[in-house]
Amino acid sequence: LKTEKIIASDPFPASLKNLEAFGAQTTRSNEDIVKEADVVFLAVKPTVLQGVLSTIKSHVSTRHLILSTAMGISIRNIEQALPAASKVIRVMPNTPVFVRNGACVYVCGSAVEKEDEAIVRKLLDAVGTCDRIPESMIDAVTALSGSGPAYVYVMIEALADGAVRMGLPRDLAYRLTAQTVLGAAHMVQNTNLHPGQTKG
Question: Which domains does the chain have, with CATH numbers?
């Protein structure tokens, strides 16, 4: 997907400038987004989602694929706020998508078809891994892979701090710690062994 084909809106001018630097088109109007795009990401806080949905509702049709990353807002609630037969998918990414190593899941709404799901998989596969799950699992996934990176960062910080206390330069401590975590993750992914078996 070429960046010039992306159009994004944001209420904050500084955020729009960052998006423009990335190569995307920008606007202050959510309605303009829906008029221009077929695939619409609603990457907003849960507290403002209903307001966004009410703004775009009259412009949404069956040509649109609506993706929401808002935590705690069910597909049913989103579908009820949009015209009948709207195609809605909930997506839960995590922060490592910024370096194309995210762990993403998605949940399909009742009107989503196979070709719609294929589009979502292609988008999410480009920034890491993706799995389809039932909506009943999404809260658990949010706790695991959504919040999980923060715990790993704390662990990296603690291990590196310990190494610095033992005399290592901080940049080397961070580099070794990050590679250790990365290598351990690859061991789990590539050996098909239970993590307990890899402890040696």
Answer: 38-135 (3.40.50.720), 147-197 (1.10.3730.10)
